[in-house]
Structures are given as C-alpha cells and as structure tokens.
Specification:
single chain, Structural Genomics Hypothetical 15.5 Kd Protein In mrcA-pckA Intergenic Region, Chain A, Pseudouridine synthase, 3 domains, nine-stranded mixed β-sheet, 7 helices, 17 strands
C-alpha cells in the first residue's frame, strides 16, 4: 500500500480498529490535533490527517474531534478505522534477500539499505518480514507477532541480521541480545573529528518530547531506557570521521541518537540533521562536493558490519562480517581523496 494511504477516509461505525494511540505528555502545550499527529505518525501528510478527522476517525478521550481540536496534557489521542492495521496483515512476497548463512535453526541476512525490517505505519509491504514469509515456512512468532525476528535495524541502515527458524532458537537468541552477550559492530561516517581515539557514550534513550519520530538522550536517566555505545576512530577525513560503533544495548536509533548527543551526527542522517553541512568551509566547491556525496549515499551512513552470537543449537560461537555496501564505499573513497588532496 502506498504511504499516502496511511490515513485514509474509510471510517465505518459498525467495526472500529485502533491504528494509533498516543497520550499527551503532562507538559504538552495546547496544539492542534493535526499538527500533534504529524509529529508522531511517520509518513503521514497533514492532508490525510485532516481527511481522517473529517471522516470522524480521530478521537480524543473517546470523543471524535475536528482537526482544529487543541491537544492538552493528559489527552488520549486515538485514530480508529474500519479495517484492521495493515501491519497485522502479513503477506508473503517474492522479494530477493541476501542470505549469508543458513542451517535448520538460524538464517543470517545482509539487509539492503531502504528495506524496512517489519511492516508498520506507512510500510505495509516490501518488508524483510514479507520476504521471509515467502522464503521460509513456519517461522516462530516473537512477542510482537513478527515471525523469526530477533532484532532489527533501521530502514536506511544496511547490514547483518539473524533470523530464528525455531521457537528454541528465538528464545535462545533473544536472551543473548537481552544479556548483551551477542556482538554487533557498525560502521558509521559522522560529522566532525572526535577528540579521542575511542570512547563510550552512556545515556538513557527515549522518544523526543516534541518530535516523536526522533529519539533523544536523557543523560541523567530521568526518562528512556539505559543505552551504551562504544566507539573508536577508524579513519579521519578532516570534516568527517569513520567510526566503528559497538552496541552494548540495542535501543531504537541508538547510534544515531548517541552520535548526535556527542556532537557527531551521522553523515546524511536527515532525521537528526546530518543532511546539512555541519562541518567544513564556506567555499562553493566544498558545498558541491558534500552535495555530491549526499547523492552517492542518500541515507544515513550506517552499516551493521559484524554480527556474532552463540549458535542456539550447537553452542558454537558464530561470527559474520559483511562487505561495505557500494554507496558507503564510494562515499568513503571521495572523502579519502579529499582528505589527501584538500584541493576544494
């Protein structure tokens, strides 16, 4: 289904299904409900939200409201439609996937950038889950009813994922990720040049209070969940740096939020402001150079390169390493050349 069908005018009185539910923070200043939902529903346009309100599909505290209703602290905002959420309609799709390793217990996938891992708001087809359902039978459901899924990486992050083929494997692998005994290393191209060669970022990660599509670091731990990222410098290019980031925890957008928090936003990470020129000169040639790099890698420069875990059946340590994808490799090549010659 197309993204612009995310909020569609199909409300039916006789049978309602909840698609979204949000509780406004206590400190929420009065804000139109259409603007409020725009900040919280990915891929939703204001036009679609307003159409949903006209159709009587937006409720605040169990009463249908118009799009100009002002949301206040404590309000419960819900979007209801006459059809079940599309994320619950899992359909097998013949989508090619790169299988790095497979046996009767686990599958290791190298996910391409641009592929959503599981169906969700705005992405109901073309996901890795849709592909897995086509290629494999009887995958076990995790707690969120997502077949075989042990962990996930963002849509525009490339790299390695392990999929469980049995209930026992799902339980065993999930415990490893929970216990932090698995190994996950990422390559990240970030803006700026860290002062140290290696370091650790610690800080609770939770939803941004004003932009719910972003995650935010709460250093004092008053909100969010504990998150730890270890990083080390692999290569410096002057205005950008290639890092290896090792996850100790696995929070949503963890590397993206942690790197922004320490002043080194991921290169071309649009959601966190990395698609602006954050470091460098004012020369027009440099600006053109960076924009050319953005075109080469039209996503955040993040790749899940290494994955290690104990095999749930044999107990053997399994270690996998993936090649750097072409878009990132070409971008690194351009920066490497720039750093060597500094002719811009």
């Amino acid at each position: 289904m197309e993204n612009d069908n995310l909020l569609e005018d199909d409300f039916q009185e006789e049978s309602l299904h909840e698609h979204f539910s949000f509780t406004a923070d206590k400190g929420q200043e009065p804000l139109r409900v259409d603007k409020y939902l725009m900040n919280r529903i990915e891929n939703a346009t204001r036009n679609k939200i307003q159409n949903a309100a006209k159709a009587g599909s937006i409720f605040v505290n169990d009463k249908a409201v118009k799009s100009n209703y002002k949301v206040k602290g404590g309000d419960v905002v819900r979007v209801l439609f006459g059809h079940p959420p599309h994320e619950n309609l899992l359909v097998p799709e013949d989508i090619p996937i790169e299988i790095v390793y497979e046996d009767d217990t686990v599958v290791v996938i190298n996910k391409a950038a641009g592929m959503v891992v599981h169906p969700g708001h705005g992405n109901y087809s073309g996901t890795l889950i849709n592909a897995l359902l086509f290629h494999f039978d009887n995958l076990p459901n995790n707690a969120d009813e997502r077949p075989g899924l042990v962990h996930r990486i963002d849509k525009d992050t490339s790299g390695l994922l392990v999929i469980a083929k049995t209930e026992q494997a799902l339980t065993h692998l999930s415990k490893q990720f929970f216990d932090k005994s698995s190994e996950r290393k990422y390559l990240a191209l970030v803006w700026g040049s860290p002062k140290v060669e290696e370091g650790t970022v610690e800080g609770h990660i939770g939803r941004h209070p004003k932009n719910r599509l972003q995650m935010m670091v709460f250093p004092e731990g008053e909100e969010g969940k504990p998150a730890i990222t270890h990083y080390k410098v692999l290569e410096r290019f002057g205005y950008v740096t290639l890092l290896e980031c090792q996850l100790e925890t696995g929070r949503t957008h963890q590397i993206r939020a942690h790197m922004k928090h320490i002043g080194h936003t991921l290169f071309n990470d649009e959601r966190y402001g990395g698609n602006a020129i954050l470091k460098g000169t004012h020369f027009s040639k440099y600006k053109q150079f960076v924009e050319n790099c953005f075109k080469l890698i039209p996503r955040q420069a993040l790749h899940a390169k290494t994955l290690g875990f104990e095999h749930p059946k044999t107990g053997q340590w399994m270690q996998f390493d993936s090649e750097i994808p072409q878009d990132l490799a070409q971008t690194l090549g351009k920066w490497r050349n720039y750093a060597q010659h500094k002719q811009l």
